[in-house]
Structures are given as C-alpha cells and as structure tokens.
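Recap from last week: sequence in, structure out.
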Amino acid sequence: MKKLSLLFTVITFIALSFNTFVQAAEPPIGEDNMPMQVQQQPININQAQVKDFTQLKGVGEKKAQAIIQYRQRNGAYNSLNDLLKVKGIGKKILIDNKKLLTI
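Predicted structure tokens:
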C-alpha cells in the first residue's frame, strides 16, 4: 500500500511539473481567449545599442551600427523620422518599427 501511495505521489508530481512547464511555454491569454502580445520596452534611438536595434524588424547588425554611427557623427536624433537619414533605413523599416521606438 505504501508503494502504491508513493507511486501515486510521484506520478502526481510529474504531472503537475509537466503542466507548469507547458503553461510557462505558452503566451499569456487575454480575456478574449486570444494570446496576448508581450509588451516590449520602447527603444530610445538616442540611447540604444546594437543589440537593441537588432530586435527591430529589418534591422541587422550592420544597419544597427549605421544608426549608432550616424548618431555619433551628427548628435542626438530630434525625431524618429531622422532615422530616414541613415543609409539603409527606409520608410518601410521605420513604419514597421515606429511603435517600438522613442526619442
């Protein structure tokens, strides 16, 4: 009887652990039973580093470095539209990422 009880305890523990693992891997669910988008902190274009810029859609390491080099040569960006002055940053990249960016 003790072996059966121990086996039940072990199986319960494994099942609960697996359930916790599966829940952790799933995105949070909103009130409408749809997955919620995890909010990303806005990226300040006057302070961000390469690793920050590479999180943006269409921006790899080379474009990220170009954004920073432009900032170093010309001073702080005055608006998000100033990113269009950086070689390789076009309207599409700016539009795709505008909600993630700040000054």
